UniProtKB/TrEMBL annotation, chain A:
Protein family: Belongs to the binding-protein-dependent transport system permease family.
Alphabetized CDD domains for the sequence: TM_PBP2
Primary localization class, coarse: membrane
Membrane-related topology note: Multi-pass membrane protein
PROSITE patterns: ABC_TM1 (PS50928)
Protein known as: Multiple sugar transport system permease protein
Compartments (UniProt record): Cell membrane
Keywords: Cell membrane, Membrane, Sugar transport, Transmembrane, Transmembrane helix, Transport
Residue ranges annotated for the ABC transmembrane type-1 domain, each copy included: 77-268
Matching InterPro entries: MetI-like (IPR000515), MetI-like_sf (IPR035906)
Parts of the chain that traverse the membrane: 16-37, 81-105, 112-133, 145-162, 192-213, 248-268
Lineage per the UniProt record: Bacteria, Bacillati, Bacillota, Bacilli, Bacillales
Organism for this UniProt entry: Paenibacillus catalpae
Gene Ontology BP term (one): transmembrane transport
UniProtKB/TrEMBL annotation, chain B:
Membrane topology: Multi-pass membrane protein
Protein name per its UniProtKB record: Multiple sugar transport system permease protein
Record InterPro entries: ABC_transporter_permease (IPR051393), MetI-like (IPR000515), MetI-like_sf (IPR035906)
Keyword Transmembrane helix carried by entry: yes
Cell compartments where the protein resides: Cell membrane
Family per record: Belongs to the binding-protein-dependent transport system permease family.
């Protein structure tokens, strides 16, 4: 009896420690962003005088200073939205199409093609960046959004995921039935298969969108015209000399670039967490 | 009535065409082109006719034998990666052990997962500039905090010291990624056959024994997978070191990673496209070797799974036979 009681108490202490650690880590996740949002509303003098966790009243001043110097958050937001939106649509649609081709049809190069996709899945984009830049430069496609959108049509990791999903959920009888009803192969894919794949498409779309939205390397080398900058590239302006001592507006700029992602995250966190879990065990 | 004669296999090719065409144009060609540039004298902003060098491997030789910055960038990438990966995997495993322990029954796991994963979704360049502002000298929030807590008498120049700068960059990477690793590992534990845990508990194993004898061995493949994908990700570490400190890679090249080196060579000042391309190819080879390892790992795993299934079927058949 005494023994089980002692065990219970020690487990109680352990649990308390675990909760303290978890809450501490949660605070560590929140605190930097909290300071960022709070400082976006404080004047530079207030920020320099010390730390505060409560917002102040200088929101508009910071905004005005930020806007007055070559930082155009609305433009950046629209550029990012255009690129991320278009490349997400390309990525999920064409990856689904490729995966469907790999699952439903029995063609000679099916297995070699899939093996090939697995091989190139992990090759980093940076490895081909110099050739990519030179190629785009010769095509006069720098400062165009196309080289940031079109490559997402070939997204090996998404094809891989979609293929696994189709293998698990699609019964070929549906395809057969559509054929009997006289539906063409392409129409079958668009009208019958895409709706079936929606759960997988939604998950992959979230990650494709966030990945494209957060991308810095490619836009940084391709876009030199300030009116074409995406938000991550624009953030690098905040590092420069123009905002050197305007801490309030630097925080304001940072908060603006992070805000859309916080909105997306808190609306979709359940699906995002589930998607991350799926990503790890997809093989 | 020729329906049965229709050969659908051509659609397999047709549906794969967009992927293949885009891959050839935007991925394969640039990679080959990068490789070729690595053997040439291409440099400068204004395009000039380029030539293959007399000794085609001159750029590679220069980088590996003579270029101190490049060697330093490889070493830095390794240091930064190790300093973020080890604490990351240890903490992720610890949290996984806690969250999946049914006897502990930790409440609020959903909320903890959401909060611990959060930094991973926010733009890395925003986070880099945010941390650089938080560690500002002389009066950034961290300096204010240290002063208020009495940890420091005078403001500290965090970004001037090599090891502190490296430590902060590693910490940011760790902070952004441990939640992700944790969620992947928890999903892995959920995938372990519950019968294993039941057997362990019947045999009287305690939580720690169960974790080291049952959970960890079952997670081996997922752990290896996380390790190698993290290595490939680490090789590309760019956003944080590029924007955290100006000039990028400072102080004294302490946070210069291979990607930052490549960017600096090609697009800053000297426009040494050939050197950058050669460095990219070295990075490509390292990534390719790592990818191959992942590839073999995953193949072995599915084969092992098939074997296991076969075994279970055999067992069931035997049991059924006995039952008769």
């Amino acid at each position: 009896m005494a023994n089980t009681n002692m065990e219970k108490t020690s487990r109680g202490i352990n649990k308390t420690i675990i909760y303290i650690v978890c809450i501490g880590l949660s605070l560590l996740s929140i605190l930097p962003f909290w300071i960022m949002f709070v400082n976006a509303t404080r004047s530079t003098a207030e920020i320099q005088s010390g730390l505060s966790l409560l917002p102040s009243t200088h929101f508009m001043t910071n905004w005005d200073v930020l806007i007055s110097k070559s930082f155009d958050p609305l433009k950046g937001f629209l550029n990012s939205l255009t690129i991320s939106g278009a490349s997400t649509i390309c990525a999920v649609y064409f990856s689904s199409l490729t995966a469907y081709g790999l699952v439903v049809y029995n063609w000679k190069w099916r297995q070699p093609f899939f093996t090939f996709i697995m091989c190139v899945m992990l090759i980093p984009a940076q490895a081909s960046a110099i050739g990519f830049y030179q190629f785009m430069y010769q095509m006069h496609w720098t400062n165009s959004f196309l080289p940031l959108i079109l490559p997402s049509i070939a997204a090996p990791a998404i094809v891989f995921f979609m293929r696994q999903y189709l293998l698990a959920t699609l019964s070929l009888e549906i395809v057969e039935a559509a054929r009997v009803d006289g539906s063409g192969e392409f129409a079958t894919f668009n009208k019958i298969i895409m709706p079936i794949m929606m759960p997988a498409v939604a998950t992959q779309a979230i990650f494709a969108f966030v990945g494209s939205w957060n991308n810095l390397f490619m836009p940084l080398i391709l876009l030199t015209d300030k009116s074409k900058y995406t938000l991550p590239v624009m953030v690098s302006l905040l590092r420069g000399d123009i905002y050197k001592t305007e801490f309030g507006s630097i925080y304001m700029g940072l908060a603006l670039t992070a805000l859309p992602l916080f909105v997306i995250y808190f609306l979709l966190s359940r699906y995002i967490i589930a998607g991350v879990a799926l990503g790890g065990v997809k093989e | 009535m020729r329906r049965n004669g229709v050969n659908y296999s051509k659609y397999g090719y047709i549906f794969s065409i967009p992927f293949i065409v885009i891959f050839l144009i935007f991925s394969l060609y640039p990679t080959l082109y990068t490789a070729v540039i690595g053997f040439t004298d291409m440099k400068g902003v204004i395009p000039k006719p380029i030539h293959i060098l007399d000794n085609p491997f001159q750029n590679f030789k220069d980088l590996i034998m003579e270029n101190v910055s490049f060697r330093q960038s490889l070493i830095n990438t390794l240091i930064l990666w190790i300093a973020n990966f080890i604490p990351q995997i240890v903490l992720a495993l610890l949290l996984t052990a806690w969250f999946t322990n049914r006897r502990l029954n930790i409440k609020g796991q959903g909320a903890f997962k959401v909060l611990l994963y959060m930094p991973n979704i926010i733009t890395a360049s925003t986070i880099a500039v945010l941390f650089s502002t938080l560690f500002a000298y002389p009066m950034g929030p961290v300096n204010s905090l240290f002063h208020a807590l009495g940890w420091s008498d005078a403001p500290i120049q965090f970004l001037q010291d090599k090891n502190t700068a490296r430590g902060i960059v590693s910490f940011i990477q760790f902070w952004m990624w441990y939640g992700n690793t944790m969620i992947v590992l928890i999903a892995g534990v959920m995938g372990i056959n519950p019968a294993l845990f039941e057997a362990a508990s019947i045999d009287g194993a305690n939580g720690i024994q169960t974790f080291f004898r049952v959970t960890l061995p079952s997670l081996r493949t997922i752990l290896l997978y996380s390790l190698i994908t993290s290595m490939i990700g680490g090789l590309q570490m760019f956003d944080i070191p590029q924007l955290f400190i100006t000039p990028a890679g400072g102080p004294d090249n302490a946070t210069l990673t291979t990607s930052v080196f490549i960017y600096g060579q090609a697009f800053k000042g000297s426009y040494m496209y050939n050197k950058a391309a050669a460095a990219s190819m070295i990075m490509f080879i390292i990534a390719a070797v790592l990818s191959l390892i992942v590839f073999y790992l995953m193949r072995d795993r599915s084969e092992a799974k098939l074997k296991k299934q076969q075994k279970m079927i055999n067992k069931a058949a035997k049991a059924a036979a006995r039952g008769m």
